[in-house]
Amino acid sequence: MDQEIETLLQKVKQANRAPYWQGTPEAARSGPMLMALLFGDAPAVARVENFTVPSSGGFALPVRLYVPSAEPKGLIVYFHGGGWVIGTVQGFHPMTATLANRTGCAVLSVDYRLAPEHPYPVPVEDALAAIGWAAAHGAGAIGLEPRALIAMGDSAGGNLATVASRLHNEGKPRRKVDLQVLAYPVTGHDFDTASYIEFAEGNLLTRNDMKWFWDHYLPDVSKRSHPDASPLHAQDLSASPAALVLTAGRDPLRDEGEAYGRKLRQAGVQAEVVRCEGLLHGFLAMINYAPSAGRAFDRIVAAIGEATAK
Questions:
Q1: Model-level pTM?
Q2: Contact 178/197 with Cβ under 8 angstroms?
Q3: Domain positions in the chain
Q4: Active site residues
Q5: 3-308, superfamily in CATH?
Q6: What is the pLDDT of residues 184-243, one digit of tens each?
């Protein structure tokens, strides 16, 4: 681990904060997320717009569009992490603004509805609506046809990104998702994998925290193996776009993310799986804090660069 990561873990231990699973969603939402604590200020972006796109049940889905230049290379639809329970577009603003500037792509950041007020499948419906809007109207919004349409998310947002991009592509739209970028994604609900056991405590995200998130997102355990909730259980992933899957070496979700990458490859999908050794769940918040997290973000930028160079 970087010294910065070791220092962070020591500070978290000394802070002795109540874990998510011992509190309420309201309490979890009231505290600062890692992004606010570690990332730093957001860079300026040439154009930033807030608006809504239509989703299920007549919901006006809030989104934020970042356009870094007059000719953005591609369009990234971004879904923030937070266990489907916490997190906002505003909270992830420093990272998504940086993502736009570093990749030269427009970024559509999505404020999908959160559980437990809006449990599964509502967040999936919002994710699919956002990708569908980007495919149909993104060119008009950013001023040109993007070279690549990319779905990206971290943690629970990675879950939504991969599920929604597969569902979108299965519908045979005029514009498919070309690439998915998944950072430490939730892909299943097995709390007894080797990484869940090894990193159950002491590395920011805990096993009990993830059980708590799942209990709010999809309380009916019998439905958690549905492929739109746990994509690792999908029978057919062949419509999925090419993928970059990054896992954190010290993360309970590590093994399910890597298993999902293997399953994508078995389905004939081009998938690169990168284990970021020594890193913790949530490392996208640490790219300006820990050198190894910065290098992981460089891998993301490079993969997006390759996709938009075609």
A1: 0.98
A2: no
A3: 3-308
A4: 155, 251, 281
A5: Alpha/Beta hydrolase fold, catalytic domain (3.40.50.1820)
A6: 999 999 999 999 999 999 999 999 999 999 999 999 999 999 999 999 999 999 999 999
